[in-house]
Amino acid sequence: MDKLLSVKNLSVSFEGKPVISGISFDLSVGENLAIIGPNGSGKTVLLKSLIGILPYNGEVSWTPHTKIGYVPQKIDADRHLPLTIENLLHAKAGAIGLKKFSVKNSLEEVGLGHSAAKTPIGHLSGGEFQRALIAFALLGNPKVLLFDEPTASIDVSGEELIYELIHELQDKRGISAIVVSHDLSFVYNYATNVLCVNKTGLCFGPPEKTLNAQVLEKVYGPHKYFHHFHHKDQEEHKNA
Amino acid sequence: MLSPIYSIILAVLAAAAAGLVGSFALMKKTVLAGDVMSHVAIPGLGLALIWNINPLIGGAATLLLGAIIIWRLEEKTSLSSEAAIGVIFASSVALGALLINSKEELIDALFGGFGGLSTNEFIFGVAASLFVIIVLWILRNKLIINLFSSDLAASANINTSGLNLWFIILFALTILSGLRFLGALLAGALIIVPAAAARQLTHSLGWFIGMSTLLSVVSVILGFIISNTYGLELGPTVVVVAAGIFVLSLLKKKE
């Protein structure tokens, strides 16, 4: 398969303190890479260095002219900004010089109706907001999408829908994805490879061959991983 | 000396630029740093008076210097930058007041006035205002994305640091084009106050930007009429009118 991204010995430091170090992995066209690791393990920093927002050491080489779509976990935008998804899509289309595009089609592709287009971003639900971010990332036809915990601000019932959407988009558009996720069922069902991160790379390979109790213990610490991957079930219990 | 009609043309254009810049500054939450930025012009005005050159040239020099300093401080995003900005502006006012040794000149520098507008000043003011309006139009898409998220802007290959520098320079130029008639203390007010009122009155991006521009122009025109009718100082009158519009906008209930 054609290689899309090759990462060798990637390190990022803030004010001299290493946040992540020695991370290496590859991504091929059409593949789906899941990144797992505990909170504060440097997953977001890793994604940001991949798209060149953060300075890093080591090698991050994308196939030339690879268009990347980025779906961040959080946007620290003011809730009271008078901005709608429609404004943002038009702004991005203008900024990247896209002549023909339709807000309606962009939103339909991520399962949003026309009323969402006119709603100020601060008034969207967690799920709608996530879909809006995906529509924004898809504009310009990226070859790869990077998701930073796409379900972090979404209730349990909405999570599955977002993962289904990601999967559907990949099928339809043939794009690759790098997804930071806490959801092991997503990792097993959809990921071609999994990368375990806790300051450094602790595993890389197909989930069924790579993930086992020892590896997860190494990533999350003794017994922690159990809580990590089962707390959602508990929440479901609570909500029921 | 030019006839009053030129003063009005310049004031309206400067107001339109201020309204536009103000709407983006309000969304960027850089309003306050931007407002006090006008104070940096004061030592420049003082030096220009000492060296007997056009005050606007001195004001322009220190404003642009101030713009670059603020940009550098914002890039660092350290906690101390706000404090540093405060120190720079307060000392600018003090230094300016020491440099300008006649009371009349000091009042003019602080509060403006259109007495004796020269052709060069007119051309410069009009050019600066038009430049601000045109560049904002060109950068609008990038600015909107950057307002929403600088990470997303960077991921769409937008040079966010360069964009911020452009915005601060546009801000400085807007202050400069208002400096002649509003003065260094109040030039920033025409950027903030109409934008704040417009934000109260509108809910969508297009209306907000349009309303901010309109209210700024209306404040200047009403200010002209009132100051002429009652023989008041132009700069303070314009700002009081803008503040009055803001107070009225508060009466509108937010959804």
Give a quick summary of the entry:
Helix content of chain A is 40%, strand content 25%.
Strand content of chain B: under 5%
Which structural class do you get from the secondary structure elements of chain B? mainly alpha
Shape of chain A: globular
End-to-end Cα distance of chain B, whole Å, is: 50 Å
Beta-strand content bin of chain A: 25-35%
Architecture per CATH nomenclature, i.e. the level-2 architecture of the largest domain in chain A: 3-Layer(aba) Sandwich
Total helical elements of chain B: 12
User: What radius of gyration of chain A results from the CA coordinates?
Assistant: 18 Å
Counting helices, strands and paired strands, the structural category of chain A is alpha/beta
CATH 4th-level superfamily of the largest domain in chain A: P-loop containing nucleotide triphosphate hydrolases
Do you know the CATH architecture of chain B? Answer: Orthogonal Bundle
User: What is the CATH C-level name of chain B?
Assistant: Mainly Alpha
Average pLDDT confidence of chain A is: 84
For the biggest β-sheet of chain A, the strand order reads 5-6-7-3-8-9
**Model regions low in confidence, pLDDT < 50 over at least 5 residues of chain A:** 230-240
Whole-number count of domains of chain B: 1
CATH topology of chain B: ABC transporter involved in vitamin B12 uptake, BtuC
